Amino acid sequence: MFENLTDQPADKILALMSAYKADPRDEKIDLGVGVYKDASGRTPIMRAVKAAEARLLQTEETKSYTALAGDPAFADAMIDLVLADTLPRDRVAAVATPGGTGAVRQAFEMIGMASPEATIWVSDPTWPNHLSILKHLDAKTRNYRYFDAETRGLDMAGMMADLSEAKPGDVVLLHGCCHNPTGANPSPEQWDEIVATLKARHLVPMIDLAYQGFGDGLDADASATRLIAGALDEVIIAASCSKNFGIYRERTGILIAIGRDVPQTRTLQGTLSYLNRQNYSFPPDHGARIVSTILGDAELRADWQAELEEVRTGMLRLREALASELRQLSNSDRFDFLAQHRGMFSRLGASPEQVARLRDDHGIYMVGDSRMNIAGLNDRTIPILARAIIDAGV
């Protein structure tokens, strides 16, 4: 039977990581991988995570399974972090998942069960794994315009024009904040317009919230998600703890589904638990227990928020420094969008040939569509990158 298998296309980001590691140049710069790194190039363990793990080591008494939906304390803590007091808890169903990717996958599975004829509208561009999973599931998809290559900002007119073709019951996949890969986000006024379109056309929003706390702050980054959750009857949210808690390898995520009323939410909860059972039975718990320990303790939570704020403001400072350096070198403001974007990523707007030139001539590695990880920079490498961008003719 294995003779029927064919080679799968290599993951472009993983291939880029391998090429970077094989490059012998000392001055090479990795802007490709989607992981936060500090100025020394490490992905550190946050202080509150260390403290929570130490506490768990002393107090945990079993490694038995949790419930199919995961630890209820984790769900409650995450629902509060994402939604605050937007709507009653009894309208919210939730299950723990292996990372944000697991939440996205389970959400797509649920959509397929509930409405197999629904089209899932995806921003152009989006996180490549969205499209990969949807293709694997043979889901119906369409793109909506999102990124304006000229302004490096949101193409709001194109987005609204494309979504005007969506049919009632279709799903619109949105990035809650810190759009990956572009870094360009709607303004509050544009979010209002998006919500109005969702309501008027009876569309179901699915929000991928992978970077809460990395953009403008924990509450600000959740504001669009809360706006949508408070305005519509049915909402799907896939949230990740990988970035804001720095627990990438613990694979900690949550899938949240909001029902129209309590009976519908009970059905949603049963469906989500059923999907967990079909996929991996009981979700992993260590990362979820870390998160619920931190969010449930005032001192640990304050320390976590303080360190997360240091990460966020550090990335903003890098953005502003790079934009400033490029402004001086180019004698123009055409790179100011870098300071306006939010999160780890920005799409530079370079052609594939220019991206290849940056890699071959300067040892600067970014994804072929010119998505670069701002967190891969530091004070020493910003001038090097800026000069290379100008030399490459971007």
TrEMBL record:
Cofactor(s) the protein requires to work: pyridoxal 5'-phosphate
EC class (word): transferase
A GO term, aspect molecular function: transaminase activity
Gene3D superfamilies in UniProt: Aspartate Aminotransferase, domain 1, Type I PLP-dependent aspartate aminotransferase-like (Major domain)
Residues covered by the Aminotransferase class I/classII large domain: 27-389
Keywords, comma-separated and alphabetical: Aminotransferase, Pyridoxal phosphate, Transferase
Superkingdom to which the source organism belongs: Bacteria
EC number: 2.6.1.57
A Pfam family of this chain: Aminotran_1_2
InterPro entries per UniProt: Aminotransferase_I/II_large, Asp_trans, PyrdxlP-dep_Trfase, PyrdxlP-dep_Trfase_major, PyrdxlP-dep_Trfase_small
NCBIfam families: PRK09257.1 (NF006719)
Record-stated family: Belongs to the class-I pyridoxal-phosphate-dependent aminotransferase family.
Subunit structure: Homodimer.
Protein name in the entry: Aromatic-amino-acid transaminase
